[in-house]
Amino acid sequence: MDDVEVHFEKEQGLLDRFRSDASVVRAVDGISLDIEEQDLVCLLGESGCGKTTLGKTMIGLQRPTGGSIRYRGQDIWEAKDGEGDVEITHEEIRRALQIIHQDPGSALNPNRRIVNILSEPLRHTHPNISQAERRERMHSLLERVGMTPAGDFLERYPHQLSGGEKQRVVLARALLMNPNAILADEAISAVDVSLRIEIMDLMLELQEEFDTSFLFISHDLSNARYFAEHGDGRIAVMYLGEIVEIGTAERLIHDPRHPYTEVLRWATPNLDLDAMEAEEPPIRQIDVPDPVNPPSGCRFHTRCPVAREACREEHPTLEDVDGGDGKAACFREDPNHRYWDSEPLEGAAESREEFFANAAAETSDSNSETANSD
Ligand SMILES: Nc1ncnc2c1ncn2[C@@H]1O[C@H](COP(=O)(O)OP(=O)(O)OP(=O)(O)O)[C@@H](O)[C@H]1O
């Protein structure tokens, strides 16, 4: 993905229609990302930051309003529109890039038996095999995804399956297309908590067996960490339509370079980190700004505990992090940046430690005020 943008025209009310300045939601705003063969990337961020839009754009389900997406060098949308020299057809690209939705129930046609749901992709990828061979393939894949006796499951309808079983069918159906990459959009949030690790392990095993890349979308750092650590992949942290940090789970959790990554760490209490001493969230404001009108400069500057004037004025780009893996978009990574000479913004502090010391002092002041007024 090269400098990809997806801007949506915001739905307008009656009065807005008479105004010329239609508002635009900057769901994805200038993202470049390479996904290699057998790669694993987890997109992580708060609700509405653009994860699903970016994922769908990556697999060719959403047309970008700017930038380009190439699959093995072929521009996906030029293939679709039949523009230029098309080396890989759009049909081939659609087969190669598959999606597993958040809600497996709605992804399966309720009126069709599992056998019919699964034979459809096989007819597509292997038009010349016999019915018996097709059944044999479906049978062995269902067993592989942990659904035994497979013959019994093949005859069922989706409503006769549990959430976890439906998710396994959806996974099997995606794999029957022999994909090169699978987008799993919050794919385990519909699965019972007790089964999540099992499904995540299954996906990781199948990734290796089927030689696919995976793009996982999650708002939960502990799930993203599990995938990235066990699948030897990266986590890309998104904020208001941009990637603000990317790297291994180990580095992001133990040595985050972007203050927003710290917020996500703070919001994930089960990470068992000694360093997680803070009781207060490391932000100045809880509310996420509107993607229709994102803040100037660094989009995180309105919430960042260590934001300075430079952050309001200048837009940071993703740069390699010093002495570590991955990239971060924060001026604090550059010791020579004018950030260091500019003034802290209102409510921000010189350092993270000072921010927390101030927050603790304010809390005790307000506690004593409450005590006095009592
Ligand atoms: N088709 C659309 N038309 C207009 N706005 C849209 C459309 N799809 C998404 N958006 C907006 O784009 C922004 C990003 O949405 P997106 O669903 O990609 O975020 P997300 O991070 O996946 O959120 P969630 O975790 O809640 O699914 C949001 O402000 C959303 O309201």
From TrEMBL:
InterPro entries: AAA+_ATPase (IPR003593), ABC_transp_ATP-bind (IPR050319), ABC_transporter-like_ATP-bd (IPR003439), ABC_transporter-like_CS (IPR017871), Oligopep_ABC_C (IPR013563), P-loop_NTPase (IPR027417). Residues 12-265 form the ABC transporter domain. PROSITE patterns: ABC_TRANSPORTER_1, ABC_TRANSPORTER_2. Keywords: ATP-binding, Nucleotide-binding, Transport. One of its GO terms (molecular function) is ATP binding. It holds the Pfam family ABC_tran. Belongs to the ABC transporter superfamily. NCBIfam families: oligo_HPY. This is ABC transporter ATP-binding protein. It comes from Halogeometricum luteum.
